[in-house]
Description:
Layout: H1 3-13, H2 23-29, H3 35-44, E1 57-59, E2 65-67
Antiparallel strand pairs: 1-2
Helix pairs in contact: 2-3
Amino acid sequence: xxxFVEDVRQACADGLLGERFRPxxxxxxxxxxxxxxxEVFLPKHREGNPGGYTAxxxxxxxxxxxxxxx
Length: 70
């Protein structure tokens, strides 16, 4: 699992992120990553991504993302 996903899981466990979040929420809860990471990582690793990358997130109908359980 990537370090970024570990940071997201920890932020959720610590109550820094809600069940649904956007890239800006991640930027505040998990600082220190390249600015572009927050915008690109979520869609790249969502369920049903076209590249076949490991899915860590679900994209919700309102444009937010949710962390998939391990």
